[in-house]
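Quick check before the chapter quiz. The format below is the same one you will see on the exam, so make sure you can read both the input and the output lines.
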Amino acid sequence: MSNFYDKLETRDPELRERELFAALPNQIAHAKSRTSFFANVLREIDAKAVTSLSALARLPVIRKSELHQLQRENPPFGGLVAVPPAKLAKIFVSPGPIYDPEGRGSDFWRTARALFAAGFREGDIVQNCFSYHLTPAGSMFETGLMKLGCAVVPAGVGQTDIQAATMSCLGVTGYVGTPSFLKLILGRAEALGNDVRFLRKALVSGEAFLAAQKQVFEAHGVHAYQAYGTADLGIIAYETSAREGLVVDEGVIVEIVRPVTGDPVPEGEVGEVVVTTFNPDYPLIRFATGDLSAFLPGRSPCGRTNVRIRGWMGRADQTAKVRGMFVHPHQVAEVAKLFPAIRRACLRIDNPGGEDRLRLFCVLDGDDSGALRDRIALAIREVMKLRSEVEFVAPEALPNDGMVIEDARTRE
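Here is the expected output.
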């Protein structure tokens, strides 16, 4: 059985670069002709001249943080989608809200390659524990699993006892979802006496993959690999058997740039991940993810020849990803505006025991009742789609330094 998904993974790097940049001018011309956003932003750009990484680097950057406003001004997709909404297969709603399109092509999000590298094959029964409710993660990985010929259990999130029982009853062999949720399921299976010995492989994403979690999985005989992607771009990079960084997907061009200027950084230097796709339905050109990473030198020992990145290394802004969901500063502000008593607020994210925890610290004018705390917690769930604790603190306990989201999670 081949160790590689296709021949693209092992092609000569110079050939890969020639083929990508031979295709790029057509993609840019397509974006200009089919989307109002790129027709405007790239109106002075000659698509035929963008045939190198240096030429691509001269194009303007579009930031993920801008999507919410762009879509409000030009609904529903900000002028970035190249087909009418009715021609799409699915339309998702991510927190913000941000509307994410899924086209009708097979493996639209390009997840099959990452799943293959993690060991998923035809005949696997896979419990898909990414969310199926409004957000795209569940569908993203389901399409890749079906491309590989796997049977999918569309489990979604929550109901841990049922998840553990299902995994045991069906003899599930693979898992996709966040690493923290897999840890919870394995813990409940052990506590309830559910036999999950057939589970041997996992692809995790949506949050940091901690060394302690990997050790727990290995102790259960589960070999877990991580993938990095977004709801806009699909898979960007994925882990392989070499366990040395993440190999960039064959369907994108990745740059690492300075967050403010968009200029490429030297190899090895940390910067913002900027991605260009060849997706005909959602042709994103120089899309800045807001995530930090760096290129690794050399080639992967696994035999794949594409460039590698070190993985997710934080955010270029205060946006954070928690349990597979992005939390934005404007959402914290939205919650605070709902309650006149809140003078200042800061959302702190940490992970005691390896589980992500949110706490909204509020400085109040007046009312500090438990009823108000409960109302704020409910508003957080409605706005951010996540649970958070709420704590009222004295003014001196919350510095007036502009910090809206503090990510204090350990990464080891």
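If your answer matched, good. The first strand starts at residue 62 and ends at 63.
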